[in-house]
Amino acid sequence: MAQPGEEGLFLDLRASGAAEGIATRFPPPAYFTAFIDGEKARDKAGLMEQIGPAFRFPSYFGKNWDALLDCLRSLPDSVPARGYVLAVRNSSSFLLLSAKDKEDFADIAGEARAFLREKYSANLVVALL
Question: Is the pTM of this model over 0.85?
Fold first, then answer.
């Protein structure tokens, strides 16, 4: 049986109205869920402002793609869990202003997911709400 999020990196839950059920699908404390608002993450700068506090990144988080990758790969060191969920509310606006930013984020998140699976047997999912 597949674990939650095995469907792919991006899990579109908009049609099912599953925002309220995210804790059921990804139960804490096995999963750590970080919520951000897609309206405030319409570009890279907005994403970086929100994702750091949501995932409890260290204060020295550099708010660039390399720093994001480093912090995502280090999640088990600071927030131990079997898996990690970035839940994006208002996801239709998420990285809407730049297709390049959306592509770069997907690459970074995919690389982090592969690393977390290989090194920690942990999962990373981006849930679109």
Answer: yes
What CATH number has the domain bearing residue 96?
Answer: 3.30.370.10
44-79 per-residue burial string, b: 16 or more CB within 10 A, e: under 16? bebbbebbbebbebeeebeeeeebbbbbbbbbbeee
Is 98 among the domain residues? Answer: yes
pLDDT category, 23, cuts 50, 70, 90?
A: confident
User: How many Å is the Cα radius of gyration of the chain?
Assistant: 13
| Percent share of the chain, pLDDT over 70 | 91
Are 86 and 36 spatial neighbours (Cβ–Cβ below 8 Å)?
yes
Supply the range of the domain harboring residue 93.
10-128
